[in-house]
């Protein structure tokens, strides 16, 4: 039970930290990292709820985490690509 | 028999593959793919019309694991709207992106977006909704930045980040619900949900995250630049369909998941935000210097009208009056979809012809393009909510609901919003009357002007006169 | 679907379809556009003829279309709708001929005639609307269809006039909409029924019903130019003459006045409205408007402006008639719907002729114009004398019945209003007639666009006012003949008052 709380609580803490960081920081890279921290928080929480004591862990949250990571990676890639595009233009000026 | 629900998702996916693989025939394949996608989507609507709700389980996993697809009257109505609007936009795009790189980039992204949209409208589980929402967001951002101009890229990058924040917040809510009730299926979660801190937290997180994506006031700041700087067909999709998809999710959750735990105060808050959006969005639209910016702010106001329905739905007991409100809500959403798509497409023509879209300098162009101006006028009729548009019927029922539930203050908001909308639309339309030379004919470029005109005509006339079909589609009794 | 359903639909659609096709007509295809215009107008007139005959013999023409639960679009022909439908279709035909002549060689004619036809469809829809929802729909459509006509010229002045017109009518529109929805929430769908539908309402609802009446009256008062809602009318004078004729004589102001008649007679019921004290309100507003419009007209030098203020005044006779309890006053008010229409359209046609032919826009330029343009001036004189109420012209019939009705209802103050208004009418019309007939003409006209040939101006401009002036005489001289406006209105009044 404590492990649940520890993992879950840490997940929520990570999420909150991510939101805070997303809102206060201007720089693109920081925002992208903040989003990823938020994502990690959510995934953390999912892993925590998959734990079912003596039973084998619930596979559904694991599947969700995997899918979630794929989505997060692609979104991050797109954000970075667009950010790069803006920087290139700034450099060209 | 092939599963029509799965087809509505896979056909556009296949089209996306084809246009990527055969760039030489991108226009032809694009039109064929668009027609095919529209047909399979409409087939779902027809089946819902005939048999009521449909459900399928393409993966064979079964509830409660989910991954099921489901179509009820609400999703079927929006699916049909998406199919027709997207088809018109596709045809317009063949005339708009005549050559060059952009044409090659547009079509694959476009079909991916369409696929994600259909999947979102048909998804029957909360996590599927997350995935489709992200796919929709990513493709929308990529399309929005298609011009590659600095403002467009910057605006859409912001849109992307805000969207990610929204979907992450939504996802956290999904996780909370799964932790509490052990299922992701919408219907099962809705049946199991009990009032309590977890459910309330999930409601706030999911609604908040989606409100960001649906640009509900005051979380709208990203929308006007993103929508106004995209190429015309993309702006049309973003305003008519993508924002609507996020709103659809809020509605779906409030009806089917959180139906039992929503409090009047929560619904009232959403209504209040809607009212603020109506006034603020309309006011900013009136002050906008550019036509596309005007259209974008008008979207903000229109989403506000949809939010006004929540406190009324909350206060109305189950029965015909509530059915009417719900149908009116969908009718307004659909009318706005057609009208806004038509408006953006027409605005694109004006911009293309004038080289800019500054309203005060549009005079000669507006008069030079009667079909485009006419489309703007028809779309404007629907945006203002004048008869015989679908939004007129919607507004009538909205105001009826406000009087019946004793919440008359919303009427003031609606009236002010209507007058402001009239003011901003006629500000544009008055430019069409000037002493520039008479145009020689009504239509100059059929492939772009006719789709815009048909979309606008649908919103302004067809949806109003045919509104009762929606009641039937949604399974509400129509008293003959 | 049978003939009785199709007829009202057909009457609305003839001009709607004609309008739709006209938009698509290439600018230079004058003949095609003219054919579409005239065939639409003539077919409509034939259908209306059939309808008159049927309604007279107690036939019911009705079409219903379900929009949503509880919201039905209803076209229903009763005697009052037939009166207004006939007026609009006859005057549409005449105005179309006039407009074709008037706009020769001017830009954007496809757009103009397209909206012109839509405008008539909306007017006919208003006339045939069988319930309040349908009325609101067509009433708003009329606003939309007339805006482009007012803005048509595209000058800064026209845009400004159109903007003012829109601000007033949109504002009125939302009030009307609110009132209509509120009423429907209280009573269910509000069908127009002769004698009214509200007379049995619970006493507890009276307060709300009064508030609703005020909302409806505010919405309708804008178009019928009741003070203080009349401000748009003189401003929209910038429109081309056929549009002014249409706005002032047929479509817009009449839509408002017709709506007031509908609300008083067929929604509230005249007796019930009177018991709520609403008729007094209406009577006071109407009387004030009559006097105010006439006084303002006295000091206008612009001919069209003077006519516009005259309209403000004259249209309120209709509301005045509705505000007096009793069948005779009803006759006086309703018949003025037609009489004011034919007289005012004559005057506007003539004003347009003076402007197009000689460049005369002001009363002060009209010296001796009767010698140069005798037929036009003769028509103008008939209209003006009719407005004053000189027998045997139509306007006399109106004032006679209004006066009789006032005596019957013991509302003697109305006689004072009528007398004062007639004096004022004489005060602003007789000087024009004096100038036109008895002053010597100037050496040169302000801007002579059309030189006298076989006629004083081109035929398409000359015949319409002559024809409508003849109507004014006939409506007065043969007021007692079957199917005259007066006889028809007496039929309506008998039905409304259950006699």
In words, what does this structure look like?
The complex is a heterotrimer of chains A (93), B (480) and C (499). By secondary structure, chain A is mainly α. Chain A has a single domain, classed as Helix Hairpins (Orthogonal Bundle). Helices cover 86% and strands 0% of the residues of chain A. Chain A contains three helices and no strands. Chain B has 19 helices and two strands. The radius of gyration of chain B is 21 Å and the shape is globular. Chain C has 499 residues and is mainly alpha-helical. In chain C, 73% of the residues lie in helices and 3% in strands. Chain C has a two-stranded antiparallel sheet with strand order 1-2. The chains are: A mainly alpha (93), B mainly alpha (480), C mainly alpha (499). Chains in contact: A-B, B-C. The interface between B and C is large, with 49 and 48 residues.
Give a brief outline of the structure:
The complex is a heterotrimer of chains A (93), B (480) and C (499). Chain A has 93 residues and is mainly alpha-helical.
N to C succession of SSEs of chain C: HHEEHHHHHHHHHHHHHHHHHH
**Overall helicity of chain C:** over 70%
Q: What count of structural domains of chain A? A: 1
Succession of helices and strands of chain A: HHH
Compute the average pLDDT of chain A: 89
Distance between the termini of chain A: 58 Å
Global Rg of chain C? 21 Å
Q: Widest sheet of chain C: strand order?
A: 1-2
Distance between the termini of chain C: 34 Å
Largest sheet of chain C: 2 strands, antiparallel
- Strand % of chain C is under 5%
Q: Kindly state the mean pLDDT of chain C as a whole number? A: 89
Structural class of chain A: mainly alpha
**Class based on secondary structure composition and strand pairing of chain C:** mainly alpha
Portion of residues within helices of chain A = over 70%
Q: Biggest β-sheet of chain A: count, sense, barrel? A: none
CATH-derived topology of chain A:
Helix Hairpins
The tally of helices of chain A reads: 3
Shape of chain A: elongated
